[in-house]
Amino acid sequence: MNSALKKIIFGILAIVIVIELAWAYQTLNPQKTTVKKTTQEGVVPPPKKEAAVIPVDAVRLSLLPAKVSFGTGQITNIDIVLNAGTKKISTADIDLKYDPNVLQIIKTTPATKIFNKTLTNKNDEKTGRVNLSLTQTTGSVPVTGKNVIATVSIQALKPGLSDLSFTFNGYGETNDSNVLETGKTNDIL
After folding, report:
1. Per-residue pLDDT tens over the stretch 55-106
2. How distant is the alpha carbon of residue 64 from its chain centre?
3. Do 86 and 172 share a structural domain?
4. 172 and 116, same structural domain?
5. Residue at 118 is within a domain
6. Could you tell me where the beta strands, DSSP code E, fall in the chain?
7. What is the arrangement of strands in the sheet containing 60-64, beginning at the earlier edge strand?
8. Cβ neighbourhood burial of 142 (10 Å; 0-12, 13-18, 19+)
9. Domain ranges, residue 17
10. Taking all residues of the chain, what is their mean pLDDT, rounded to a whole number?
């Protein structure tokens, strides 16, 4: 074999080896690609993903049990629970909604050992709304901790699904469920 042919073969082998090394490097170390959305104004940064943090002192209302199934004509009880967090509570206004075609509210019973005065206890069967307003009289010990503040007795009128849920229109709104801290007048729910 002549030396010119050997040089060509070694040159081709060298190129093949370089290509193989580049391919191996690319395969073992993939590059990250960032896609940016553009608008007329410019580059839109990707949305930040932040974990939802619920403060330890957050006040919450809940229903227990959270989900229940029962037959037509049967009556069951649902507890309304107030978790005051680290706050001292003087008043709780509960606004519940439900489907009056599926459920009937038999009664709503306030836990008078927790809040000592009931201002409102109404059920509108046409609109499917329960309004319950509970308070502590002046000089009473504020409500703290986690407590069952009322029990709602409900009956299934017919087979179907119905939510029993709190009305909440936003922080500071007064035409929904509200909780007031002792000595303050703003809604903290």
Report:
1. 556 889 999 998 888 889 999 999 999 999 899 999 999 999 999 999 999 9
2. 16
3. yes
4. yes
5. yes
6. 37-38, 43-44, 60-64, 75-83, 89-97, 103-110, 117-124, 129-135, 146-156, 165-166, 178-181
7. 60-64, 75-83, 146-156, 103-110
8. middle
9. 1-31
10. 80
